[in-house]
Design goal:
The protein is globular. The chain is built from 15 helices and 16 strands. The longest helix is centred in the C-terminal third of the chain and has 29 residues. Helix 9 runs parallel beside helix 10 and helix 11 runs antiparallel to helix 12. It is α/β, with parallel strands linked by helices. The structure holds zinc ion (ZN) (2 copies).
Amino acid sequence: MEIVFLGTGGSFPSPQRGVSSIAVKVNGDVVLFDCGEGTQRQLMLSPLSFMHITKIFITHFHGDHYLGLPGLLQTMALNGRTKDLEVFGPKGTEKLVTILEQISYYSRTYDLVLHELKDGQTEHFEGFSVTAHRLDHALPTLGYMLREDDRTGKFDTNAAKLLEIPEGPLWGKLQAGETIVWNDRGITPEMVMGPARPGRSVFVAMDTKPMMGLPEIIKGIDVLIHEATADHSLEEKANKFGHSTAMQAATIAKEAAVRRLYMIHISPRYRDVEPLIKEARSTFAESYIPDDLEAYKVPYPEVSDAELKKQEDAAKEAAARESLQRKIIEKTEMGEDVGSLVAELERAVAQVPAATAQAAPAGATASPFGPPPPPVPTPQKTKPTAPPATAARPAKAARAGKGAAPKAATADGGSDEEEDEIDLDRALAEAGIDLDAEDE
Ligand SMILES: [Zn+2]
Ligand SMILES: [Zn+2]
């Protein structure tokens, strides 16, 4: 499960932040929460395809949360979408979305299915569910709890061996939930499978003032995405207009003992959000404000904090190595001396433990949009002068000028999304750099 923060600002767009929209990639679906103005362009700058969106949940009908909808619906039609699109929201959704459709001429190529949800209503989908919860804002507003279905327990190989079940197809049948007969005895999956493991859970709360009873609803979830329109000094004003402060969002996160808080719907008045982060962290340490287009791969609950920290550190180290690689390739192309950089890279590569060398490590708040894969120049052993003729096509984000952050997290501890790994050896070889050469 991966969250991509498309728009993290509140009220109106600013040069720093677009307005509300969050995409969650879950079980092959892309689910959108809110679709503020400019969302479709943010989608194009992200690694997600807007054509893969299957469901859109609107929190409420203030303009900063849904005015991107008509444009997105039309672009989907222009791209020949045929798959149904479901839009969910509070009371009024059917009327408002229908009106939005009527304000311009276009031919829809797909079915738009509108649903109005009530407080407490759960919609079940393949592999996950979404439950609507009423929030406390100036208009009828829904928060949404997205929960993955429980996963099957782990197969206990020792238990299977004790029962003398031979490794092979019979193990597979038990893992698939079938009862088998072995040694004239019925063996049920429960005899060899551990308990079901919980899936991951995310709650989206915007817009709302601090909501009574919310901590009980979201107790122990993995990620709380809560609005934090203002700072503590503006609490009275924020609450009067149905909004929360960073401190209040953090207090809810703490009371609910969630694993991580992401604060969004940041007022355009804040160019520097560090004071808001500091304010929240004084109450709840795991508080963050994402930049637009930042992403977070939600780890499974059983991945320990220590393991997460290890993965984050590994991600930082990997990013540093990638940066060195890029420098080496760039300097090589310019015909400059790269001896000291190569030595530095050698040292960095030597420090990578064997176990993490191959696995793309996690970086909890890393953006998936950078860095771009190292360019793959035409091998030029001697006097490279011209730019490479076959440079790799830059990643989407690089084209968008968003290339400096480390690679996306893979803190899942799961297997739902395989990361593209940058092949250090190949990139170096193609740049004509042989790390072993000096030893020979
Ligand atoms: Zn808003
Ligand atoms: Zn609002």
